[in-house]
Amino acid sequence: MQGTSQTYRDAADLMTRGESHRVWSLIVTIFGDMAQGAGDAISGAALSRLVGMMGVRPEAMRVALHRLRKDGWIDSRREGRGSLHWLTPFGRAQSAEASPRIYDRVRSLSGPWHLLMSGGADGTGRVQLEGALLTGDYLPIGSQVVLGQGPLPNDLHGLFGAEVSRFQVPGWLRHQVCPAEIMALYSALEADLRAVTAILDRGPPLCALETAAIRLLAVHSWRRLLFRHPDLPDAFFPEGWRGPDCRILFCDLVARLPAPGLDRVEAAA
Amino acid sequence: MQGTSQTYRDAADLMTRGESHRVWSLIVTIFGDMAQGAGDAISGAALSRLVGMMGVRPEAMRVALHRLRKDGWIDSRREGRGSLHWLTPFGRAQSAEASPRIYDRVRSLSGPWHLLMSGGADGTGRVQLEGALLTGDYLPIGSQVVLGQGPLPNDLHGLFGAEVSRFQVPGWLRHQVCPAEIMALYSALEADLRAVTAILDRGPPLCALETAAIRLLAVHSWRRLLFRHPDLPDAFFPEGWRGPDCRILFCDLVARLPAPGLDRVEAAA
Q1: Which among A161, A167, A171 has CB closest to B167?
Q2: Is the pLDDT of residue B39 over 60?
Q3: Percent of chain B surpassing pLDDT 90
Q4: Shortest CB distance from A162 goes to which of B119, B159, B162?
Q5: What was the pLDDT predicted at A80?
Q6: What is the reported pLDDT for B76?
Q7: What is the DSSP string of B170-203?
Q8: How far is CA A118 from the centre of its chain?
Q9: How far off is chain A from B97, nearest CA to CA, in Å?
Q10: Of A34, A133, A35, A24, which is closest to residue A71 (Cα–Cα)?
């Protein structure tokens, strides 16, 4: 982080909290935030400079890019003495799907929702229920029920299906959706977002690359926490959950740290 | 059944199918059909004549009336040399609740409905779910889910509740709601109702008491079958279920066999 301002270092420390982010995931955040459009690309030099500001070494970045190419997220090509990287159509689709969950100021998730149910103890439909869970689109509730977003699918594979217009969620299910450990992480993130905001209020303006880096670290911290639990309406979370407050603080923070255009990042690299 | 017409005996045979109805339940049918209003009462003599036409001996009727009084359905008093019987407020309420299910020409049950769910294998909410089942207002689905009519109750006693706008019902649940044995009873009742209708079409008109007795036997057969399964929309019943056809046949039959006024029954007794 040499050559960065004290304000930047103080804010970046809070957003990394001492732990090093997984580089693979950090690069997904960067492309999702800055280069999600068709035709967007980031040079190896600019990417290296950005992740360097977040404490990531060039070798770690190269290993992560290799893995992202292998998994079908990223495509790359040589360009003069360097390289150029961009999201594949798969990577763009994944990023686009995640974006509302990350960036929407209010997450209403108004529904409809649906429940799929097996026959219970005698095992009727148990296999079909496990099939639904394997898609990753369902929340298990006990051993006999799964909850999914949207209207009832056409083919329920023999499960009992119910489209739901209203929920009442008891404590045991709220704690299953968001256990104490994740509740604590929300409280910690809220404090960190407030502290970063205060640091930016006090300090001199950041340069373009510092702005981009703090923005990306904030997006990454927020995204990582969000994806540790299912995407459900607020009524599914325990009393005292700091999610909606974190969302407002996050949106305010990234609004004052606008993503620089790719051309400015390339120019600074 | 002495002194009754051949037409009556042929029709009554079909509606009793050789088996003797439980007298207790038959008397509930009679009061529900003929004397559900506040102030309605039936004399012992008229009741005795009516059930006599259905093959019930006076001693059996007296035993049944005793039990109905003990259970809070019926109240009685001496009246001259005989007695007078009427439904208690409880009996009237029970009859009124059952009436739409018995007499409505179309049973739409359009909802809303709601599901209550326990936490599954770990037993969370198991006791509360059993409490809901004890009310008799819920259909169990496996060991973790119960289905009830109406909007979500205010207090779910810690269960997960969902108000349902649409269902898709698999075969295993349809066969739980209406197993093969009850399916067969519906098919048999359909045939019997058609046969009784044909007998009435062919024969000379019944007298007032015969009309009342055939009507009551039809109501009783229909009511007994209806209450052998939960009251659910048609979508919860197996393919080939004769319920809606039976309902139309039953309604047509009782429409041509109007309940005589209590005064006519008393005059005939």
Answers
A1: A161
A2: yes
A3: 76
A4: B162
A5: 87
A6: 96
A7: -HHHHHHHS-HHHHHHHHHHHHHHHHHHHHHHHS
A8: 32
A9: 27
A10: A24
Task: Give the whole-angstrom CA distance, residue A123 versus residue B145.
Answer: 14
Query: For chain A, which domains are there?
Result: 6-104+176-268 (1.10.10.10), 113-164 (no CATH)
| Interface residues on B facing A, Cβ-Cβ cutoff 8 A | 112, 115, 117-122, 124-125, 141-145, 151-152, 156, 158-173, 176
Task: Specify the residue for token string 């997984």.
Answer: A22
Torsional sign, CA B66, B69, B74, B80: positive
* Element housing B145 (H / E): strand B145-149
Q: Which of B122, B166, B177, B236 to mutate to test the interface with A (most CBs of A within 10 A)?
A: B166
Contact flag B141-A119 (C-beta cutoff 8 Å): yes
**Chosen from A166, A174, A232 to mutate, greatest number of chain B CBs within 10 A:** A166
Q: What are phi and psi of B117, to 5 degrees?
A: -130, 140
Lowest mean pLDDT among A203-217, A245-259, B123-137: B123-137
Q: In chain A, what percentage of residues exceed pLDDT 90?
A: 75
One-letter amino acid identity for B205?
P
SS3 B224: helix
